[in-house]
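Hello,

I think I submitted the flavin-adenine dinucleotide job twice by accident. Can you confirm which output corresponds to this input? Input:
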Amino acid sequence: MSAPHALIAGAGIGGLSAALCLARAGYRVSLFDQAEALEEAGAGLQLSPNASSILRRLGVLERLLPSSLAPRAVRIRRARDGATLCVLPLEDAEKRWGAPYLLAHRADLQRALLDAVAREDAIKLHTGAAVAGFLSGADGVAIALRKGLIRLEASGDCLICADGSRSLLREKLPGTRPGALRFSGRTAWRALVDARCAPPEMLRAETSLWLGRKAHLVHYPLRGGTVVNVVAIVEEDFRADGWSTEGCSAFLAERFARWDTAARNLLAAAENWRKWPLLDRDPIAHWTSGRVALLGDAAHPMLPFLAQGAAQAIEDAAALGGALSRDRNVERALLAYQAARQARATHVQQASRRQGVIYHLSGPAALARDLAFRALGGENMLARYDWLYDARGGEAA
Ligand SMILES: Cc1cc2nc3c(=O)[nH]c(=O)nc-3n(C[C@H](O)[C@H](O)[C@H](O)COP(=O)(O)OP(=O)(O)OC[C@H]3O[C@@H](n4cnc5c(N)ncnc54)[C@H](O)[C@@H]3O)c2cc1C
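Support: Only one job matched these inputs. Its output is below.
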């Protein structure tokens, strides 16, 4: 009997991970991305153990390790004077959660996944091929493809829509009633700073999180400490498509004018700011219909305040592979995938939202938050993430 055939729309972190997991589950995989060339774009990613454990199993982590960095801690600082509020120790991350906590560049992760995909005979990647629609029937699923001016068709046993937060395929899934994707009122600005130009304290192998009024700042060294990844989140009205609108540094200089000198010096050292609007959407009730399922941002776009967008897409991929390898009845397996993932992903979506509110508090509420962080201390703060990072339960194990 020939291997079952999975179609995947979207070769981002989610689609690439899903292709690898489905190939492991015994599927032949056709992976389509609308982009002519997969853009090695984006900024740093925090790869928590719940995701790094899966990448290790897929043979991807070993390719990523040379360019990634294991931070020793997360340091939370107060914006106005740089005071440290709390240090969450990460030295024992692997012992505590069963897999490493890593800092990596999104482009490096994408390349490591693409390398693994290229080595897998069961996966065929088609770029410049947009999935425009689908028809799911009792015996299989057919998709319509657009390749430039050419219209093509393909068919398979299931379709996985991993076409990102602006997913068009999600809109076509019967029964999803997706709420509108809305602008959260915040933008993310990112830049890479050459380590030679960065203030020395910014080169520590740590993730630093600065909390200020209606803004926060995250930075950490990347690529063997040769660059510092800087992400500034500000409350700002800005609506645009894509990840790479050019940002004007004078705006940030003004917005962070009252912040501690060290933070301002880091921002001043950055060139080539890119910014994108942070989008949010309420969780949806159904991720699957018949032989079609959503995965990654298409299923659960989330605000980045828990740094879980990529990690949750990777968890989806592992759960999907597990479900389809256990049950050859595709429709039942897709429902099992949804059952395994939906509550957790929704919980992460909602927790990310709450985290954003806490980060941007001002006045007495911010004072109370800072006192609470100090009182709790790093070890207790760390324990609050066990539910999220622990790689020893479920498909991540
Ligand atoms: C270029 C880029 C840069 C990013 N940079 C950052 C960043 O700096 N920080 C951050 O937190 N997150 C970033 N992200 C998002 C982050 O990677 C995702 O939130 C997370 O990895 C979940 O990934 P995903 O695979 O679900 O979606 P995505 O990573 O968005 O991937 C979706 C893929 O689907 C493709 N696609 C869309 N529609 C179709 C279609 N109809 N047919 C075929 N293919 C289609 C897209 O070309 C894309 O490759 C970026 C995403 C992209 C695409």
